[in-house]
């Protein structure tokens, strides 16, 4: 009897085993892809490749919703979602294979082909990046075929009672549960072993990168930053420290897999319009140049009013303007033909920055250090860009590999193609960190405190008001230049009941932060941050 017919009675539990067969097949396929991906690069894993395509194809409104809802865990949520969807499709393929074995296997092959297409079309990918997904599809199809065969062995059985026009003598299905179980357990065990071996191989592959970072000794800066001024960190309970520790520094990017680059093989290419002397630099060659150390606050354009995506760190790096001048680049104000500097990451991300801005005298850096250590992998090791005064999406390229001079008319960088503004200066913002929204402080004196930033302009004043009343000037922490945030605190004599606190800042030019509420897109959020609290009776 042909296994691709349903001309027989099937036990009820057979469908459950068929769905399990699909799940086992998918697991086997993903595990089989691990050694292949380890031999190439982690980004070639099927789930990572498909996830990267999903990130690129997701509408900006959905991306912003995900960032608001899940914060820096948005990539984990996406990965889990892809795995859940794959599990549902795998179970369906198992059920399909119970009736049409070839069709079930074809579904597995099709998913492998889709992963291969996703991997091969990623920026910087080659045809080899398709291999892990093709292996995954082929192994999944083969395992599903074998497991469904174990479920589709008819044996003679009593004829059921005739029903309808299709009545007639039919055979019955007898499922060899032990045989299926042994086969499924064997597939899981072998797949897990392959997956573990692939992960270990991948770990060995990234060991060179880990060792290169661990062994990197950053030279002392030629231009060191001074000590943080006394009083810059107000140390108010409930607020962040003045310098954000590396593990706590926000991370917003599109990389599902953090690139781990071997510093010994890293290269940076500087070329393009107006470049008289193209440069190719190794990390030692970059470190041989004078290093500058500066405290700079970074802000993500995805940050909502009062949001968490801002952090202050002590950066160590080479002045970008010096490198560009070494390559013969002139800013547009001096007759240079290029007005845009396009930075390209090893994962294909492109970020466009105004040439005039990075050469106007501000401390735009190719950073190699962060808070006294080499850049963490998650924050761009070995080299990233840091440009004070601009949102990260137009300045802060991580895992840098290329700088190309061009024009804004000739090229749209990654985020610009998705509707964001080509140029975006950081807007003045103030944030209340304590008391938290919807908290219940006790009546009496309450410290209202937070941070304010207006990079490259500085913060001159912060004011707080209660329930729409008069503005009260807050006490500012000591200034550490114009490129960092400033902490602030205001003592509030809180009375019982429900109250709304609002804050606004004035930058170093005298401009007061706008009340107008605007979303992050297309060039940064604006508006006053407000929190509502219910003050409890202090008695």
Structural class: alpha+beta
Task: Round the Cα radius of gyration to an integer and report it.
Answer: 29 Å
The count of helical stretches stands at 10
Beta strand count: 21
Outline: globular
Cα(first) to Cα(last) distance is 85 Å
Determine the mean pLDDT: 90
Strand content: 15-25%
Largest sheet: 5 strands, mixed
Please state how the strands of the largest beta sheet are arranged side by side. Answer: 5-4-13-8-9
Helix content: 25-40%
**pLDDT below 50 for ≥5 consecutive residues: which ranges?**
1-8, 159-172
Structure description:
- This protein is 32% helix and 22% strand.
- The protein has 539 residues and is an alpha+beta fold.
- A 5-stranded mixed β-sheet has the order 5-4-13-8-9. Strands 6, 7, 10, 11 and 12 form a 5-stranded antiparallel β-sheet that branches. Strands 14-15-19-18 form a 4-stranded antiparallel β-sheet, with no helix packed on it.
- Helix 4 (74-99) packs antiparallel against helix 5.
- The longest helix has 38 residues, at 177-214.
- It is globular.
Could you give the topology of this structure?
Blueprint: E1 8-9, H1 13-40, H2 46-57, H3 60-70, H4 74-99, H5 101-120, H6 131-151, E2 154-155, E3 171-173, H7 177-214, E4 267-272, E5 279-282, H8 283-287, E6 292-299, E7 310-319, H9 320-326, E8 340-345, E9 350-354, H10 355-358, E10 365-370, E11 373-374, E12 384-386, E13 400-406, E14 429-434, E15 444-453, E16 459-466, E17 472-473, E18 475-476, E19 486-494, E20 497-507, E21 529-535
Parallel strand pairs: 1-3, 4-13
Antiparallel strand pairs: 2-3, 4-5, 6-7, 7-10, 8-9, 8-13, 10-11, 10-12, 14-15, 15-19, 16-17, 16-20, 18-19, 20-21
Helix pairs in contact: 1-4, 1-6, 1-7, 2-4, 2-5, 4-5, 5-6, 6-7
């Amino acid at each position: 009897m042909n296994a691709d017919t349903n001309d027989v009675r099937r036990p009820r539990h057979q469908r459950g085993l068929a769905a399990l067969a699909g799940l086992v097949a998918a697991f086997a396929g993903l595990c089989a892809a691990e050694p292949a991906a380890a031999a190439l690069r982690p980004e070639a894993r099927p789930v990572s490749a498909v996830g990267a395509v999903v990130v690129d194809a997701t509408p900006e409104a959905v991306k912003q919703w995900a960032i608001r809802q899940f914060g820096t865990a948005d990539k984990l949520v996406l990965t889990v979602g892809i795995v859940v969807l794959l599990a549902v499709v795998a179970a369906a393929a198992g059920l399909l294979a119970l009736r049409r074995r070839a069709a079930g296997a074809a579904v597995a092959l099709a998913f492998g082909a889709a992963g291969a297409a996703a991997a091969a079309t990623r920026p910087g990918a080659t045809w080899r990046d398709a291999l892990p997904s093709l292996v995954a599809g082929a192994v999944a199809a083969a395992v599903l075929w074998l497991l469904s065969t174990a479920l589709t062995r008819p044996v003679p059985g009593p004829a059921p009672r005739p029903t309808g026009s299709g009545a007639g003598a039919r055979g019955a299905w007898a499922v060899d549960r032990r045989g299926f179980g042994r086969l499924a357990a064997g597939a899981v065990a072998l797949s897990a072993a392959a997956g573990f071996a692939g992960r270990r191989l991948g770990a060995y592959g990234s060991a060179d990168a880990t060792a290169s970072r661990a062994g990197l000794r950053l030279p002392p800066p030629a231009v060191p930053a001074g000590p943080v001024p006394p009083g810059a960190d107000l140390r108010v309970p409930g607020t962040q420290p003045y310098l954000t520790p590396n593990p706590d520094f926000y991370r917003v990017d599109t990389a599902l897999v953090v690139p781990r680059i071997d510093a010994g093989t890293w290269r940076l290419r500087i070329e393009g319009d107006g470049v008289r002397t193209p440069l190719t630099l190794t990390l030692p060659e970059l470190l041989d140049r004078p290093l500058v150390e500066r405290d700079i606050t970074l802000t993500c354009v995805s940050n909502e009013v009062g949001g968490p995506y801002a952090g202050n760190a002590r950066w160590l790096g080479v002045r970008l303007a010096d490198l560009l001048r070494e390559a013969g680049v002139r800013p547009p104000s001096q007759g240079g033909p290029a007005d845009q500097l396009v930075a390209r990451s090893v994962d294909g991300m492109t970020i466009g920055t105004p040439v005039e801005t990075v050469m106007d005298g501000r401390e735009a850096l190719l950073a190699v250090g962060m808070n006294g250590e080499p850049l963490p992998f998650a924050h761009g090791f070995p080299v990233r860009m840091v440009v004070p005064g601009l949102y990260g999406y137009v300045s802060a390229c991580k895992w840098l590999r290329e700088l190309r001079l061009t024009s804004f008319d000739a090229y749209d960088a990654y985020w610009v193609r998705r509707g964001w503004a080509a140029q975006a200066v950081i807007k003045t913002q103030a944030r209340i960190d304590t008391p938290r929204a919807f908290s219940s402080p006790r009546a009496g004196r309450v410290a209202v405190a937070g941070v304010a930033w207006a990079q490259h302009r500085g913060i001159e004043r912060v004011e707080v008001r209660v329930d729409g009343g008069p503005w009260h000037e807050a006490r500012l922490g000591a200034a550490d230049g114009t490129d960092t945030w400033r902490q602030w605190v205001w003592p509030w004599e809180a009375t019982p009941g429900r109250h709304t606190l609002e804050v606004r800042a004035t930058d170093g030019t005298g401009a007061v932060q706008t009340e107008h509420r605007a979303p992050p897109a297309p060039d940064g959020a604006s508006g006053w941050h407000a929190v509502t609290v219910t003050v409890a009776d202090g008695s």
